[in-house]
Write a structure and sequence with these properties.
This protein is mainly alpha-helical. Helix content is 40%, strand content 0%.
Length: 150
């Protein structure tokens, strides 16, 4: 039992752990031994590279209009902020309530977020105000649930 502390178990072969230089070492050893060495270039290697100007890049360069993703309106951000402050919630508390990251709430309030209907719906339910449609910022009308007929 006392020898167990002194034994070392080696798993795997760690001789060529460097990795990248292995082929180079093998080539040098073969050269030293005077063996014939040939290198072949694979056909079509690097065929997926995109070099040169294509028609699409020329069109993009000639485009004068500034193309951007549509982000949420600042009125939505202000409505979220007012609703959150009315319920005395922090951004982090609202985020945990709707199962999102606090950064998502920050982006929506600053008007930088890409509109996601699911996130907006969760915020509407949590804050009790409408964030979509024409009457943004108005109280959310809670629909009555229909009783199940059995």
């Amino acid at each position: 039992m006392a020898d167990d502390w002194n034994t070392v178990t080696v798993i795997g072969n760690r001789r060529n752990a460097a990795g990248g230089g292995n082929k180079e070492k093998q080539l040098n050893m073969a050269r030293r031994q005077g063996l014939a060495i040939s290198t072949d270039q694979k056909y079509g290697a690097g065929g997926n590279t995109q070099k040169g100007n294509t028609l699409n890049t020329a069109k993009l360069d000639a485009e004068t209009e500034e193309l951007k993703h549509k982000t949420v309106d600042m009125s939505v951000g202000k409505a979220i902020q007012k609703g959150r402050q009315a319920k005395e919630m922090t951004q982090k508390e609202l985020a945990t309530k709707i199962n999102e990251k606090p950064q998502v709430i920050v982006e929506y309030e600053q008007g930088k977020a890409l509109p996601n209907q699911q996130v907006l719906a969760k915020m509407e339910r949590a804050l009790g105000i409408k964030l979509r449609g024409k009457d943004k910022g108005q109280p959310l009308e809670v629909k009555e649930k229909k009783p199940n007929k059995k």
